[in-house]
Amino acid sequence: MKGKGRFAAILLLFVFLSPRLFFADNLPVEKFQRISSRLQKEGFSQAEIEKVFKDSRLEVYRDIVALKKKKIDYFSKAYDLFGPESIARGKNFLKENKATLEKAEKQFGVSKEIIAAVLRLETNFGNFLGERPLINTFYSMLALNFNSDFGEKELVSLFLVSRQIKEPDIFNLKGSFMGAFGLCQFLPSSYLNFAVDDNKDGAADLFSVEDAISSIANYLRRHGWQSNDFYSKINGLYGYNHDLMYVLAVMVYAYEISF
């Protein structure tokens, strides 16, 4: 009787705790199972999925909530977007990539100065690409229940990106604290929908200047940009970054480097 009572107590404890069981110490099992199911429908094996979620490099970034709330003041002296050196680099970028920029401008209808301005604001022409494994960013959102639906969507998209670009180790894909990567800082889902293989080497590479330029132009056009309509330009840029100060900063910087 004593043994049965102990067994019953253990069983009740299991039933009580089961909804709170975690996979990889942080992710509720039901979330992992949902993601696993979505990935298997995309052709990933259970072994491939568990290999990632059991990797010792998987971790939770608990600062992600505070970082998300932090706003960038694009017009501050600290950001130095409109200083002489910054403007000179923008003009130099236009000269060095003239052919590629003019090609994108002709194909997508987005001015070369705007494309350059987006690259300046996003990564300072590739000088600040981010060093966090993207998988950890989206995993953190799920584990902390912060932007959870967004995190799940982008995590699944990241697996698809890794397969598309033939990257065997998903932890090698790194980017910003919010999960954007490459020179133009696309989210994984944006890569799948808008990235362009401009140099025709078999896959869009957002760390390639050529591919990044065309991808930005394609993104803006697909978000409403029209070369002859001012308000459509605002809508296109706002689609890129939902911050009106960002939109204004891009347009002012583009103007400054245009002459």
Description:
- With 259 residues, this protein is mainly alpha-helical.
- The chain folds into 2 domains: 22-66 and 131-175, Helicase, Ruva Protein, domain 3, CATH 1.10.8; 70-130 and 179-256, Lysozyme, CATH 1.10.530.
- 58% of the residues lie in helices and 3% in strands.
- The chain is built from 13 helices and 4 strands.
- The chain has helices spanning 2-17, 29-41, 46-53, 64-69, 84-96, 98-108, 112-123, 134-143, 148-164, 188-194, 209-222, 230-240, 244-256; strands at 22-23, 27-28, 132-133, 174-175.
- It has a two-stranded antiparallel ribbon.
- A hairpin with a 3-residue loop joins strand 1 and strand 2 (27-28).
- Helix 11 crosses helix 12 (230-240).
Key terms for this structure?
single chain; Lysozyme; two-stranded antiparallel sheet; mainly alpha; Helicase, Ruva Protein, domain 3; globular; 259 residues; 2 domains; 3% strand; 4 strands
